[in-house]
Design brief:
The protein is built from 15 helices and 2 strands. It is mainly α. The chain folds into 2 domains: 88 residues, no CATH class; 216 residues, Fumarate Reductase Cytochrome B subunit. A two-stranded antiparallel ribbon has the order 1-2. The radius of gyration is 31 Å and the shape is elongated. It starts with a helix and ends with a helix. The structure holds protoporphyrin IX containing FE (HEM).
């Protein structure tokens, strides 16, 4: 016991003159001395941030038989004291009737929100901002070191169709909606701390209401586009042996020639699956935020991960909370939504860089849909071979058909 704890103990003893609180676990259990209430050990342990077994609070809640008799020290009034009521409210076991029937309407006290608020206002903003700025810095450094990836060989002047109009439509719907969601999401996340001091509450309020409206409504376009690109491109993004070779050569980014690739190389497949998985996860948690308290994503997920023993990999004996109040579900949904969005934003920064400034000839694929044949030979040689073979096949069939 530290000196501070000892001093505190003495202080509490004097305060409760008589020391009923201070008796250390008589034969019939430590709570007999306190009439079933918490003990000095509990208080000290809580202050030292040690785990406290406060099951006695829930056990006594609302059950007059479990309550301490009024004659005992700190006894309750027959199980119906004010503290019992507050306890029941705190542990969400009180029989509350409300006029609003929303799923969380009967939860009147929720004391699990402070860590979320502090995390959202502190580390999430701080690390989040540096993460995005750092990503831009890394891309700038990469550009300085590597420069623009040029088409090495002689241009042919011929083009090959890379993406059909409907594919480009889906891509730009995805890109446009994601960038708008990213911008309006960042305004919501960082606005309170960085924009209110500059623009004031009034101006920011109008701005934030607009940003929220855009964010809520544009989300549907993102989800539709996500499904479209998944259906269009999943077949070309299944991993295969060429990806291993491509990755072993680092994509030829720092020399070593151009490793062969099909329609999408391993780097692009990673982008595709990041967009699908992270974008899917952002969509799911976004829906949970859009329809408050309707989706319960985290409690069942934590339960499954606990069953698999995943938290134990990080710290022995650890488990994640598998019983969450509706508000806690929302808090986890908000954090996950924001963190995964920041990660996907950083990945997309890299994608936009390589699709524009970083590589000569790449933008045309999504601009006009036609790419220079030499670009295709250097970056997607196996795909170009397939296209050529298909064209030759169609030509032959066409010639045969014409002759017949
Ligand atoms: C201004 C923004 C953007 C530009 C200039 C851009 C450019 C491009 C280009 C040129 C391609 C074709 C690459 C090729 O021919 O192989 C492409 C593909 C793709 N884009 Fe974008 N894009 C942008 C934003 C986005 C966003 C925001 C997303 C998703 C949230 C996205 C997801 C994809 C995916 C999944 C592919 C296929 C895989 C790949 O090529 O990496 N793009 N993009």
């Amino acid at each position: 016991m530290t000196i501070l704890q000892q001093m505190l103990r003495v202080f509490v003893l004097i305060l409760f003159a008589g020391g009923a609180l201070a008796q250390d676990g008589p034969a019939d259990g430590p709570r007999a001395a306190t009439g079933g209430a918490q003990t000095l050990e509990d208080i000290l342990a809580r202050q030292a941030r040690q785990p406290v077994d406060d099951g006695f609070r829930r056990e006594a809640t609302g059950d007059p038989d479990a309550a301490a008799p009024v004659t005992a020290p700190l006894g309750t009034r027959g199980g119906a004291s004010d503290s019992d009521l507050w306890r029941a409210l705190r542990y969400d076991s009180a029989d509350v009737t409300t006029r609003n029937n929303g799923p969380a309407a009967t939860v009147l006290i929720q004391d699990g929100g402070m860590w979320w608020l502090r995390f959202r206002e502190g580390p999430l903003l701080g690390y989040g901002a540096w993460f995005l700025i750092g990503t831009l810095g890394v891309l700038a450094l990469f550009f300085l070191l590597r420069g623009r990836i040029r088409i090495d060989g002689e241009k042919t002047g011929r083009t090959v169709t890379r993406f059909k109009a409907i594919e480009r439509f889906a891509h730009w719907l995805l890109a446009g909606s994601f960038l708008l969601l990213g911008l309006t999401g960042l305004i919501s996340l960082f606005g309170r701390k960085y924009l209110i001091p500059t623009f004031g509450h009034e101006a920011f309020s109008t701005f934030a209401i607009g940003a929220k409206w855009v964010h809520n409504n544009v989300s549907w376009a993102f989800m539709v586009a996500l499904v479209m690109i998944f259906l269009f491109w999943v077949i070309h993004n299944l991993p295969d042996r060429t990806d291993v070779k491509w990755l072993l050569k680092g994509g030829g980014i720092f020399g070593g020639g151009h490793p062969p690739a099909k329609k999408f190389n391993a780097g692009q497949k990673l982008i595709f699956w990041s967009v699908i998985l992270l974008g899917g996860s952002i969509s799911l948690t976004g829906l949970a935020l859009l329809f408050p308290f309707e989706l319960h994503l985290f409690a069942p997920t934590f339960q499954k991960l606990n069953d698999l023993g995943v938290p134990g990999w990080l710290q022995e004996g650890r488990s994640w909370p598998a019983a969450l109040t509706p508000q806690e579900e929302m808090q986890y949904a908000q954090l996950w939504h924001a963190i995964v969005s920041l990660v996907l934003l950083a990945i997309i920064f890299g994608h936009i860089y390589i699709g524009t400034l970083g590589m000569e000839g790449a933008y045309d694929a999504m601009g006009s849909g036609e790419v220079e044949e030499q670009w295709a030979r250097e970056h997607h040689s196996l795909w170009l071979d397939e296209v050529k073979a298909r064209e030759a096949g169609t030509d032959r069939a066409g010639t045969k058909g014409a002759k017949a």
